[in-house]
Amino acid sequence: MRKIWRQGLRSLVPYDAGKPLEQLAAELGVPELARLSANENPLGPSPRVVEAVAREAARVHLYPDGGATALRAALARRLDVTPGELLVGNGADELIGLIARAAFEPGDEVVVPEPSFEPYGISATIAGARAVPSPLAGYATDLEDVRRKVTDRTTAVMLCSPHNPTATIVREKPLRAFLDALGDDPPLVILDEAYRDFVDDPEYPDGVALLRRHPRLILLRTFSKIAALAGLRVGYAVARAETLDWLNRVREPYNVNRLGQVAALTALEDEAHWERSRRFVIEERRFLSEGLGRRGYTFPPSQSNFLLVKVPEAAALREKLLRAGILVRDGADVGFPGHLRISVGLRATNEKLLSLL
Fold first, then answer.
1. Domain for residue 8, yes or no?
2. Which residues neighbour 67 within 8 Å (Cβ) at sequence distance 6 or greater?
3. What are phi and psi of 238, to 5 degrees?
């Protein structure tokens, strides 16, 4: 029989994003469903972003700027880098895929903390490389184990800080020591900082500053969380220009749509809303953490917009919350059975959650 499909894909299962909120609410018979399962920003985007998208809607018959020139220029000013050190993608997911397409080949190894964000390992598998798992030390990335897993076959190391799904961070001193220990000919180190805007730990590193010393470092960031643009899919990579040249060779020419570019650019300009979202998450995270602690629940201290909470009978508790109109993520789906991953919601939602618990 003729071989059609790639053998390496047999182990992959298509991602299940779940039912649309409206459909799920109708099936449950609840007027509204609060989704605390996807780490979304409940404040929503800046009103200025909404207005800018509405204005730009009349121009969607035109192709977008293939190089996201205005957005990269604004980001360059914000981060004190050059536009050539920035690449904009259709969410961080696309950027992970571009790295795999540009760098991974059959026989390569990619070290991935386990559990962590699923696309890290999936991207390696799709490219024909082997994902080498590095178990977490409890809820934290074990940099010593990651370093031991690096061999001559290692093309890349995937790290995320704050980590998804545990919300812990890699602090500056250990990260610098890890990068230095990789030597003069290191693999690529991809540092996913999707949730960095919610960190208030003073020991969190400045990834951009690390780029000056470590030329094979690639930072991934997103507008999905802090700017509440998850539905428009805009992320970006910060790296050396020569690194991004390789990624641009495999990037689709119009990979980020017009509305996404305009929304992200306007979000950058509205610094007040950016800071409002940050303050909101930090305050509500503290409120949730204190409320959960008083009720006897345990969880790693969060530096993100969600908490990974250890609970008895997680599946049953998730179902109870769902019936009451609150959707949370079963930790078993993200590698932590016996836990629920709970996003920070609006105060009324958080109060309802705590009362149900």
1. no
2. none
3. -120, 125
Tally of domains in the chain: 2
155: CB partners within 8 A, 6+ apart: 103, 104, 105, 108, 109, 110, 129, 187, 188
In this predicted structure, the answer to whether residue 25 has a pLDDT above a threshold of 90 is: no
Q: Whose CA is closest to 153, among 181, 180, 114, 124?
A: 124
Tokens of 21: 């909120």
pLDDT > 90 in the chain, percent:
91
Q: Are residues 164 and 203 in the same domain?
A: yes
C-alpha 1/C-alpha 19 separation (Å) is: 37
In this prediction, residues 196-223 reach a mean pLDDT of 96
Tokens of residue 320, six digits: 């109870």
Find the domain containing 100 and state its range. 47-269
The model's pTM is: 0.94
Asked whether residue 10 is domain-assigned, the answer is no
